[in-house]
Design goal:
- The chain is mostly helical.
- It is 70% helix and 0% strand.
- The protein contains eight helices and no strands.
- Helix 2 (28-43) packs antiparallel against helix 5 and helix 2 (28-43) runs antiparallel to helix 8 (161-193).
- The longest helix has 33 residues, at 161-193.
- It is globular.
- Mean pLDDT is 74; it is low at 1-23 and 184-195.
- Residues 1-23 form the signal peptide.
- Keywords: Antiviral defense, Cytokine, Disulfide bond, Secreted, Signal.
- Belongs to the alpha/beta interferon family.
- InterPro entries: 4_helix_cytokine-like_core (IPR009079), Interferon_alpha/beta/delta (IPR000471).
């Protein structure tokens, strides 16, 4: 889990550094939607996580990919976009529809889609011609492999209620780290730019 925090810290540092180095300003609404997505994930809880302790797994996001926060701007946006896209895909399957309250699930899907739309606009500005190569290399590929491991885990556990609970908590942790860091750094950036 420490790696996910490191990855998200690197993403946010690049995204919200003074001067808007990415050339794209994600709106405050993007942060608010992220908070709402976390709230929805919390409300989706159907089992006590303690009941599922025997099912826990370390999904091992590859730490070496962002050691020292060495992501370029385009990579940071690409990785953040990939994390949201993969989360959206995960919760947009037939199996997830069977596992969760449909109203909460649809609200979560809508929120993730809204965040993806925000990032799509920025991703195009930042990546330009690099876009096609970013999805097949380095940190973005690591995110894809991480989510592939999550999909394999769910399949191995036959999409059990406990398996979904473990995944819900895993996704909630990574999105929580991202949202809280984005908010904190956004406030720091505002303080630095005030008269």
């Amino acid at each position: 889990m420490a790696f996910v925090l490191s990855l998200l810290m690197a993403l946010v540092l690049v995204s919200y550094s003074p001067g808007g180095s990415l050339g794209c300003d994600l709106s405050q609404n993007h942060v608010l939607v992220g908070r709402q997505n976390l709230k929805l994930l919390g409300q989706m809880r159907r089992l006590s996580p303690r009941f599922c302790l025997q099912e826990r797994k370390d999904f091992a996001f590859p730490q070496e990919m962002v050691k020292g926060g060495q992501l370029h701007e385009a990579q940071a946006f690409s990785v953040l976009h990939e994390m949201l896209q993969q989360s959206f895909n995960l919760f947009h399957t037939e199996h997830s529809s069977a596992a969760w309250d449909t109203t909460l699930l649809e609200q979560l899907r809508t929120g993730l889609h809204q965040q993806l739309d925000d990032l799509d606009a920025c991703l195009g500005q930042v990546t330009g011609e690099e876009d096609s190569a970013l999805g097949r290399t380095g940190p973005t590929l690591a995110v894809k492999r991480y989510f592939q491991g999550i999909h394999v885990y769910l399949k191995e556990k036959e999409y059990s209620d406990c398996a979904w609970e473990i995944i819900r908590v895993e996704i909630m942790r990574s999105l929580s780290s991202s949202t809280s860091l984005q908010e904190r750094l956004r406030m720091m950036d505002g303080d630095l730019n005030s008269p």
